[in-house]
Amino acid sequence: MVLRSVFALYQQVPNILSRVAVMMKPQVVFVLGGPGAGKGTQCTKITENYSYTHLSAGDLLRGERAREGSEFGQLIDRHIKEGQIVPVEITINLLKKAMEETMKADEKKFRFLIDGFPRNEDNLQGWSRVMDDKANVKFVLFFDCSNEVCIDRCLERGQHSGRTDDNRESLQKRIQTYLQSTRPIIDQYEKQGKVRTVDASHKVDEVFADVKAILDKEG
Ligand code: ADP
Ligand code: AMP
Question: Against a cut of 0.70, is the pTM above it?
Answer without folding.
Answer: yes
